[in-house]
Every structure is written in C-alpha cells, then in structure tokens.
Design a protein that fits this description.
The protein is mostly beta strands. Helices cover 2% and strands 41% of the residues. It contains 2 helices and 50 strands. Strand 11 and strand 12 form a beta hairpin.
Length: 666
C-alpha cells in the first residue's frame, strides 16, 4: 500500500503480516506478506494498533479503533488471517465511565504479559489487566501522542511496558518529561532525570527494564539505571538526517542489541553497547517521515510506517526464533497475577457513555425501578423490563418469560419510570429539541407528548452520534416527574488537532463550536403531576449516583469483582478460556451479605451490567462477531435472563444499540 499514511504500525508474527493505523484510510491490514494491496479493517482515521501473538498460540489478537477510540475492537485471527471473533472491550473505569480519549490514543501491550495494556487517555494514564475490559487510572498525566492538543508534545510510541523479570516496569513520556515506575500499581509513576528535548518515543530493553532509550526531535538518550541518569548517544546521526527524529525501536538480534530510529528522512540503526555510530537502516526505504518503527523478536524484522509512502519491513534474519514465544508459559504466569477490583456498582455507562460519567438510576432493594444501562429500565414491582427495540420503538417485556406486554411506536428510548408512567424519549428531526413521551406503564398507550428546546449546540439524539452523546433519566420526586439530561460533545470531524489547512478559508472561516469537544452540558426539568406544567431547574453541580458507589470487595488473584446495579450482589469474573474461545470468562454471582452463590454463566467480557430481581438474573450482552461451523454470525446488543434455581437461560432478546459505530469521515 504505497500511499499509506501510517502513524501507527504493528507486526503480526503469527500470520506474518502488517497492521496499521492510518490517516484517512482507517485500519488497513496486509492480507499476505507479498501483497502491496492491503485490505481495510475500518475506514476514516484509524487509531493506534497493537497485536498480541503470545496469549493464544497460533492466533493473533489485534487491537484497533477509529480516532478518539471510537469502536475500540479486539479481534482474534487464526494463522491464515481468518477472523474468528471480535468484541468491543469497554475500557470500563470504576465510576461508570470509560477512558476519555485523545484523537490518537496511545495503547501499549505489556511485552511480558500482553493480557495487560496501558492506555494514554486525555486526562490520565490507565492500566488494564484484562485486555481492556476494565481499567484503573494510575497517574494524572497526559501521554504524548501523534495528534496532541499541544503540537510540541508530539509522540508516536510514547509508552514502554514490561521487561523480563519485571512485567510491572513502565516508562511513559508526557510533556517534556519521562516518567518511570519500577513496581506494580499503586507504585507511583515518578519523573526521571531526563534532560533532553521533548521526548517523542521511548523503548525498553526487553531483557533489562533499567535500560531504556528516548528520542526527541534532535537527540537520542539512554538510561542504564531506570531513569536515574541519562547519556547522549546521538553520535553522528544528525549528520545524515534531514529534518527531525520521530520514532525508536530496539532489536535483540545481538547480545548488546541494536537501536533503530525513524526520522523525517528514513530510518537509521546503531549497534550496542555504545550505540554511538549510526548508519542507514537497510536499503530501499523511501526518503519519507518514519512515524512509527517496531521490531518483531519472533520474525526478527523491523517494521517501519511512513507518512505517505506505506509500510516497509527489513529482516535481520531469514530464520524466525524457535522459542521466541511460549504461550503456555505466559498463560500460566498471567493466571497468577492479581487483576483490578471494580469497587462500584455504576458500570452501566462503560460502553454506551463514550467516556462520559452520567447519573444512572439505581435500585435500592425496595422494588424501585432502575436503569440496567441506557435504554433498558427494570421495574421489579411490575416484573417488567422496558427496552429499546431494534425496530426503533419502546417495548415492555415480562421478566419471567420475555413475552411482549405492549409496544409503543411514539417512543424510542425508555429513560425511567415515574409512578404509573414510563417516561421515554422520542426520535426528533430537529435534534435541538428533546422530545419526551409519557406512557401508561400498564397499557403502553401514549399519555402526553412534550418538547423541550435544548441549549445551542446540544444534539438530543436517542443514540450516540459522531458529534456527541445525549443521555437522559427520569424519576419520581415529591409526586412530580424529574428529567435530568447531559450532552457530551465529541470532535465534529476526522481531523487531528492543530492540523493546518492547505487552503486559506475565505472571509472569517467557520464559526466557533458552541460546545467544545469533551465539554458537557447538563439540565433538569420538573413536570408537575397536577398541572402538567414544566419548570426548568437551574444547573448546579454534576449529579452524583446513589446506591453502592465506593463499596468494595476483597480482591482475589486472577479475578475481577464488581457489583450488581443495586449493590446487593457481587459478580466474580475469572478467565477460564483463551481468546479463540469467545466466552472465555466465567462469571459467578454471590449475595453480598450471605456470600451464597446464586448463579454462574459465561461471557466474552470480564465485566457486564447485571441485576437480580426475584428468581431471575438479568444481564446485558454487548455486540460481538463470531465464526462458527455454520458460518459467520454477528450478534447484536442483547438482554439475557437466567433462572437462578436451575442456572438455565429463560429467554433473551436483541435490543437497539445506542453506541455509534460508523460511518466515519474519510
């Protein structure tokens, strides 16, 4: 793919092909090693990519997304490049939100245990023990990226994570500093003594965590003591480079290692232990900016991603390493690792909130209606669940058998229950208006329609859009109906921050955005139960969730624990399968007071939204793709209900997906 603008590349040493994150052309994948024509996994602006070839021997686990972490995916391929399954890790934070993204969000797999990964969000560094299903914020710093808000903080591969003997070792570059961690969280990421210019990329010696290398625009520096001191090894490099230095990779081909640096005019290599004498990396690499360079220890090759001239490989040996990957050994090691504990019940916004925390209804154990997740409202007293149907309506289903009680075509998304009414949002051709529908909870008939004008810049869509995410909830308060809403703005088009236009705009140019990307607007209305009049309640501070937030459970090795929506039950998630197996997690549900086991089921993610009502367990299954003996299947967002006494599934039903999954601008 000669015209590829690759800002991120990764090598699949199982299928022996390259994967890239590219400007304008999404996530391209090389179908075969000899092919110059690549296939497209996704279009638009592709995000950072990563490939794990050691967790499941013979299979490749590929991570990719669009810009701003839209539609973050984890896909499993066999050695022939056939897609086996695909899921969407929620990157769930304990407070019910997901990782706030950067335009190109840095992602780095652990080189020792690739079940673990680091994500460089727009507000903090996050660590995941389970392939991105859940994350923990470990440092309030912003990792440099290839499209930063501040152009001076440009970084391509700004994270180095894990080395032999110390899988917890971590280096990240942020601003003009290099931060280092030598032990597992909660050990702090501390600033090192790095003295050079703004660091762009960093790489660690995979055999010794204390040895790392950093490249800035004009220098290459090395530390041999975990960031305690740094030595300049730029040597003669700048005499050959036209422009700036950009990326860096380390090869274990020799005892002392080899260091490759990508620049605006190609790539260069130096040998250890001094790394002071540089020469061009191979022959034939075009004179183009090398934004990202990686080394595969298994296939013994460098992979270089260029801006505008595609991706290129250079083999240091034609013979792959026989013992470069030992999946069985790595699996045993990861099984003994303690993974994070989710200590709050409010996880429902994890996938559908697009990184924005929001007030969610919670049951209290008194039979009060509560929200399982956006568009799914459970009413224990009536033994019903109100859902967004795939046909764009609101339906009421019997929790015991899944039978339809009623269906209303005026409404599109249930947002709560207030007394004898189901409160729902309706579709609108004018997205600056919030259309509200009040339904009879027993019959499903329309009682009233109301329209609320939204502030300028707020788009009141019933599902997430490319431009933002609107959510609303409804509840009963002093006999009246109270509706609270929130809108979170996302970038309006696929252009990286600070991109300079080729053509000067005529006149004054486009008007400024009424709501900046990442900014939130909130509001609250009260509807009188006696007169039907509407009163707007002035916004004060962000609403806080009720229920069991902050309530903890003791952590166990190799398991993730989290609460039900009302905090009365605990789910313990354990990885019991491998990635070619879709449902590789076993979830066991316990009463948080008596500790009695209530249910057990399988899931393709380590964390789900669930609740227990009477003798039923209700949970939401996020969308996924799977290849079976009968062919390819794509399963939509689904509500499933289990019988607690038998453990068998009573019924399931597909529901409307509220997450935006494309198309994306080119």
């Amino acid at each position: 793919m000669p015209a590829l603008r690759a800002h991120s590349v990764a090598w699949d040493a199982n299928s022996h092909i390259a994967v890239g994150g590219a400007q304008d052309t999404g996530t391209p994948e090389q179908p075969f090693l000899s092919n110059e024509r690549w296939n497209s996994i996704s279009t638009g602006d592709g995000g950072v990519v990563a490939v794990d070839v050691t967790t499941a021997p013979g299979f490749s686990i590929v991570y990719s997304s669009y810009f701003d972490l839209f539609d973050f995916r984890r896909e499993t391929y066999d050695s022939h490049g056939t897609l086996i399954n695909a899921v969407r890790p929620p990157l769930a934070i304990g407070d019910g939100s997901t990782v706030p993204p950067q335009f190109y969000t840095p992602i780095q797999l652990n080189s020792v245990d690739p079940l673990r990964l680091i994500v460089g969000g727009s507000d903090a560094v996050y660590e995941s023990p389970n392939q991105g299903d859940t994350v923990t914020a470990i440092a309030p710093i912003v990792v440099n990226s290839s499209a930063p808000p501040d152009p001076a903080h440009f970084g391509v591969n700004p994270i180095a994570y894990g080395a032999a003997g110390n899988p917890d070792a971590l280096y990240v570059v942020s601003g003009s500093k290099v931060f280092v961690r030598s032990n597992a969280h909660p050990a702090l990421l501390k600033p090192s003594t790095y003295p050079g210019g703004t660091p762009r990329s960093i790489v660690m010696d995979p055999k010794n965590w204390k040895v790392a290398f950093v490249v800035s625009a004009t220098k290459v520096l090395q530390t041999k003591d975990g960031g305690g001191s740094w030595q300049d090894i730029t040597g003669n490099l700048l005499s050959m480079v036209h422009g700036e230095l950009r990326s860096i990779a380390f090869s274990t081909e020799t005892t002392d290692g080899k260091l490759a640096v990508g620049s605006d005019s190609g790539a260069y290599i130096a040998s250890g232990p001094s790394f002071g004498s540089w020469q061009p990396l191979g022959k034939g690499l075009p004179n183009a900016p090398v934004y990202h360079i990686e080394y595969s220890q298994i296939d013994r090759l460098f992979l270089a991603g260029t801006l505008g001239r595609g991706a290129w490989t250079l083999r240091l040996s034609s013979t792959p390493r026989a013992n470069a990957s030992n999946g069985a050994q790595r699996k045993e090691m990861s099984a003994s690792k303690a993974v994070r504990l989710v200590t709050v019940a409010n996880i429902a916004a994890a996938e559908h909130g697009n990184g924005q925390p929001f007030l969610l209804l919670q049951g209290t154990g008194t039979g009060a209606p509560f929200e399982l997740s956006p568009g799914l409202i459970i009413d224990p007293t009536r033994n019903r669940i109100f859902v967004m149907t795939q046909e764009g309506t609101v339906g009421a289903l019997d929790l015991s058998n899944g039978q339809s009680v009623w269906n209303n075509q005026d409404a599109a998304k249930p947002i709560g229950v207030a007394g004898n009414q189901v409160i729902a949002q309706a579709e609108s051709h004018d997205l600056n208006k919030f259309n509200l529908v009040q339904l009879d909870a027993e019959k499903g008939t329309t009682v009233a329609l109301k329209h609320f004008a939204m502030p300028a810049g707020v788009s009141a869509s019933v599902t997430q859009t490319l431009y933002g995410n609107f959510n609303a909830i409804a509840s009963r308060s002093d006999g009246d109906t109270v509706i609270s809403w929130q809108f979170s703005r996302t970038p309006p088009r696929g252009v990286a921050p600070n991109t300079k236009p080729n053509l000067s705009p005529k006149g004054a140019g486009p008007p400024p955005l009424l709501i900046k990307p990442g900014e939130k607007k909130r509001g609250t209305f009260r509807i009188s139960s006696t007169t039907g009049s509407v009163q707007e309640i002035p916004a004060t501070t962000a609403p806080a969730s009720s229920g069991s937030e902050g309530k903890g459970v003791s952590q166990e090795p190799g398991k993730t624990q989290f609460f039900s929506r009302d905090g009365r039950y605990v789910a313990v998630s354990e990885r019991t399968g491998n990635d070619p197996q879709l449902n590789k997690y076993t979830l066991r549900v316990y009463d948080s007071q008596s500790k009695a086991k209530l249910a057990e089921f399988q899931s393709h993610l380590a964390i789900v939204r669930f609740a227990v009502v009477g003798k039923e367990l209700i949970y939401e299954q996020s969308p996924y793709y799977q290849r079976t003996d009968g062919g390819e299947i794509e399963v939509p967002r689904t509500v499933k209900v289990l019988d607690l006494s038998s453990g068998k599934e009573l019924w399931n039903t597909p529901v409307r997906d509220v997450t935006y999954r494309g198309p994306f601008p080119p």
